[in-house]
Specification:
Layout (H helix, E strand, L loop, with lengths): L2 E3 L6 E3 L1 E4 L10 H13 L4 E3 L8 H10 L8 E6 L14 H15 L4 E6 L8 H14 L2 E7 L3 H14 L6 E3 L13 H7 L3 E4 L21 H4 L9 H16 L4 H10 L4 E6 L4 H7 L9 H11 L9
Parallel strand pairs: 3-4, 3-10, 4-5, 5-6, 6-7, 7-8, 8-9, 9-10
Antiparallel strand pairs: 1-2
Helix pairs in contact: 2-3, 4-5, 5-6, 8-11
């Protein structure tokens, strides 16, 4: 496993990370999650990403129970705040009240004294950015959070947050967590450049497009799959994309790789990316995904991939 810094910080994370979204506490029970997490750690993964909203706190609780006896300094653990956790009007968003109350609940569920990274899980139009920045700065000074970041923020929102932090001489966001994969490249035009300008890392989620880039939909939609039981793939599960994945599968096979490994290695080709956050419902998924950290794609292969994808994003004309 190779490791990369989070932007211009000194924090190092494994190129392949483990995420708990839609899995732990959801489709994967606690007794199933433990061997998956342990296998990830055995294979050099040091970064585990969760959020309070994942299974309404259950993902945090499960990860906390699994990792409570491990050496904390060996782990990089992140969580997030924003989405409603109850019907209470203040139990949502990025107000100082909600952030301060949420961090204590997350730390308790994770059975840890601090988070390595704490993400604002979406931008909150109802809370002044100065309030968000000052609150996150307070958490860093209190030692509850080491680095804070944004997740699925637009480039201009990131720039305003960084500018506000600099003006206030507060800790600025160090990392953004966007969606990024072969089929969704929107961050290449503005979010990625904004992060680079401001020394922020990128820990990307959905690197396999909710399973579409594994190739499991190449011959139809299994009734028990995410594509058959949820709306997460509604926009991506098109004949055009499936045709792309079929071609990628043939290319991957010629390289003695799985389609998943090719898709992860393609993301990691970019030095701006700190890591890919992968989901795993089986131990074998971890074993397959970590191989991507050692895969180097040649220029000719990258050119062939671009031809297959034919979806490089372009900035709209001014």
């Amino acid at each position: 496993m190779k490791y990369r810094n989070i932007g211009r910080t000194g924090l190092k994370v494994s190129e392949v990370a483990l995420g708990a979204w839609l899995t732990y506490g959801g489709t994967v029970a606690a007794n199933q999650a433990a061997p998956i997490v342990k296998k990830a750690l055995e294979n050099g993964i040091n970064f585990i990403d969760v959020a309070d909203i994942y299974a309404k706190g259950e993902a945090e609780r499960i990860v906390g129970e699994i990792t409570k006896d491990l050496r904390r300094s060996d782990l990089v653990i992140s969580s997030k705040v924003f989405w409603p956790m109850s019907e209470n009007a203040n139990d949502r968003g990025l107000s100082r009240k909600h952030i301060m109350e949420s961090i204590h609940k997350s730390l308790k569920r994770l059975q840890t004294d601090y988070l390595d990274m704490y993400f604002c899980h979406r931008h909150d139009p109802d809370t002044p950015i100065e309030e968000v920045v000052r609150t996150m700065d307070n958490l860093v000074h209190q030692g509850k959070v080491l680095y804070w970041g944004t997740s699925v923020w637009q480039a201009d929102q990131i720039e305003i947050a960084v500018g506000t932090a600099r003006e206030l001489r507060n800790y600025q966001p160090s990392v953004e967590q966007p969606r990024y994969n072969m089929l969704d490249r929107h961050i290449e035009t503005d979010v990625m450049p904004a992060c680079v300008r401001n020394g922020m890392g990128l820990t990307v989620w959905s690197p396999l497009a909710q399973g579409l880039l594994t190739g499991k939909y190449n011959d139809g939609i299994p009734s028990d799959s995410r594509g058959g039981t949820s709306n997460w793939l509604r926009n991506d599960l098109t004949e055009e994309n499936i045709a792309r994945v079929r071609k990628l599968a043939k290319l991957a096979e010629s390289l003695d790789l799985t389609t998943s490994q090719l898709a992860l290695a393609w993301i990691l080709r970019r030095p701006e990316i700190s890591c890919v956050i992968t989901g795993a419902t089986k131990v074998e998924h971890v074993e397959q995904n970590v191989i991507a950290s050692d895969v180097v794609l040649s220029d000719s292969v990258l050119k062939e991939i671009e031809t297959i994808l034919d979806n490089r994003p372009r900035k709209p004309a001014m």
